[in-house]
Write a structure and sequence with these properties.
This protein is about 5% helix and about 50% strand. The chain is built from one helix and eleven strands, in the order βββββββββαββ. The relative contact order is 0.31.
Length: about 120
């Protein structure tokens, strides 16, 4: 099992940047593909980005390509989401997810989720 704790959310003006972190417990972090999702009240949770276990393959939602970067540090059991050129429509609760399968992350089928961190982008 793995436990996930997100941090780094906050309020930022449009055009600004934030870096989210997700710290994972346990000694098997490198066995999990990792991903970031976001959810706005009243809407379904949506995929943002994913990274494979070794960190050499990533995927992004079209809405964040070129602005967001996912990365991981397996020695620190942490996955990051660098968010640049933020827009008001990026406002959401951001969740970190872990799954042994990369396709599981992409499809949002992970059994392991963090508690979420709020990101608010003001116009």
């Amino acid at each position: 099992q793995v436990q996930l704790v997100e941090s780094g959310g906050g309020v930022v003006q449009a055009g600004g940047s934030l870096r989210l972190s997700c710290a994972a417990s346990g000694r098997t972090f490198s066995s999990y593909a990792m991903g970031w999702f976001r959810q706005v009240p009243g809407k379904e949770r949506e995929f943002v980005a994913a990274i494979n276990r070794s960190g050499d393959s990533t995927d992004y939602a079209d809405s964040v390509k070129g602005r967001f970067t996912i990365s991981r540090d397996n020695a620190e059991n942490t996955v990051y989401l660098q968010m640049n050129s933020l827009k008001p429509e990026d406002t959401a609760v951001y969740y970190c997810a872990a799954d042994p399968s990369y396709s599981g992350i992409i499809k949002g089928r992970s059994n392991y989720w963090g508690q979420g961190t709020q990101v608010t982008v003001s116009s």
